[in-house]
Design brief:
Length: 135
């Protein structure tokens, strides 16, 4: 995965992806002393989209160097019902929804004790980021 502490959220793979990646599951533990929590709640709803992206890339597997060249390229229909609180253990379910060249659309859902707290699509692009304008 491209991120290390303190920006790596996925703790454990709970269910490896199946052959066609129609499902896979990871766990994210929300702790009060983690950088992302900064107290009782996570720093913001956008971190839930990042958790889905990290779970998707981890479950996708493959070459670790290629994973570091991928990046979150967008959100599609992403909804957050609430931000998680310290002490919660989140299940992140992901699946590949579509591929178009180097862009992959993943569908994800984040639950806590069976309660859905976020869901939606994320777009991940594999490959090198475009150089800055004028470079």
């Amino acid at each position: 995965m491209p991120h290390g502490y303190p920006f790596r959220f996925v703790d454990t793979v709970l269910e490896e992806r199946n052959a066609d990646f129609s499902r896979g599951r990871a766990r994210v533990n929300v702790t009060s002393n983690a950088w992302a929590a900064m107290g009782e709640q996570w720093g913001g709803a956008a971190l839930l989209a990042e958790a889905i992206a990290q779970a998707a890339l981890l479950l996708e597997g493959g070459d670790p160097a290629a994973g570091r060249r991928g990046f979150l390229a967008g959100l599609d229909g992403f909804e957050v019902k609430r931000v998680p609180r310290a002490g919660e253990s989140l299940c992140v379910d992901v699946r590949i929804a579509a591929r178009f060249g180097q862009v992959i659309r993943f569908e994800g859902e984040v639950t806590s004790a069976g309660e859905e707290i976020a869901r939606g699509g994320i777009l991940v692009r594999h490959g090198e980021a475009a150089p800055p304008a004028g470079a």
